[in-house]
Design a protein that fits this description.
This protein has a four-stranded parallel β-sheet, with helices on both faces. The protein has a single domain, classed as 3-Layer(aba) Sandwich (Rossmann fold). The two termini are about 25 Å apart. By secondary structure, it is of the alpha/beta class. It is about 40% helix and about 5% strand. The structure holds zinc ion (ZN). The site of zinc ion (ZN) has 5 residues, from helix 2.
Length: about 260
């Protein structure tokens, strides 16, 4: 299975044409380039999403092809911190939309977008809606930490609000995926206090939506508790997510996700 070709861009055009069929699933990981505190690299979201789809595509039984990851997303709320790069909403939205329209031009019916950054969620939903409403193209959109919210919360060691941004979840995953890039000497946390209508973080109370730059909440850019992170948690979660995504990919190929 390991020598299965899953990389769209490594095919020659004529080979790809004869390889793809109505069932082929094409997966796009959409990440970001943004600060993740003093302990995780800017590429964190992109790494997590791309490594998940890469391993899941290798494991899937059906034909699954992955595109190179979209390494930059919508991150204006991180721009107060050095290194963050953001696209404007229209640029990001058009970028993803044009990729899907191009895949459709090559008769790819099954497009799956795996998102790993909170700031992308609203725009990606709109893109998917627009593709369906105006282009008769029907991608499936998944944000990984919502898809696996139950499994992730079961593994949680920190208090509510601890998973967050550069918190327990991302730090655990990166301790497993990119241990050399995690600065374990610099783990500083910040669970932001829950208020009546809103608590910043992952799996927290968000009865209202509001926009605030990250610097409003944190001087170091962390919302969550990275000190609760464990490599073993990262490994366990990653392996479950890969397995589950491989089932999702196969189900999409077999028309079971319509
Ligand atoms: Zn992140």
């Amino acid at each position: 299975m390991k020598n299965k070709n899953i990389y769209w861009v490594k095919f020659k055009s004529n080979e790809l044409k004869s390889y793809i069929d109505d069932k082929t699933v094409v997966v796009i990981a959409v990440g970001s380039c943004e600060q993740h505190g003093f302990h995780l690299p800017l590429e964190t979201d992109t790494t997590i999403g791309y490594r998940l789809i890469e391993e899941a595509a290798l494991l899937a039984k059906e034909k699954v092809l992955i595109l190179p990851p979209i390494w930059v997303g919508y991150s204006p709320h991180h721009m107060d911190f050095c290194g963050s790069i953001t696209l404007r909403q229209a640029t990001f939205s058009n970028f993803v939309l044009d990729i899907c329209v191009s895949l459709d031009a090559h008769k790819i019916k099954n497009i799956l977008i795996i998102n790993s950054h909170g700031g992308n969620v609203g725009i990606l939903r709109t893109v998917v809606d627009e593709l369906g409403a105006s282009h008769n193209i029907y991608p499936i959109l998944v944000t990984y930490y919502n898809y696996f919210s139950e499994i992730i919360q079961k593994a949680q060691r920190s208090q509510k609000g601890g998973m967050g941004h550069a918190g327990e979840l991302e730090t655990s995953l990166q301790l497993y995926l990119s241990p050399d890039l995690v600065d374990t000497e610099n783990l500083m946390g910040g669970i932001i206090e829950a208020k009546k209508y809103f608590q910043p973080g992952m799996f927290t109370n968000k009865r209202i939506h509001q926009y605030r730059p990250f610097s409003h909440y944190s001087d170091i850019g962390v919302i969550g508790e990275p000190r609760a992170a464990l490599k073993s948690t990262g490994k366990e979660l990653f392996q479950i997510m890969v397995q589950e995504f491989s089932y999702l990919f196969d189900d999409i190929a077999n028309g079971l996700a319509n």
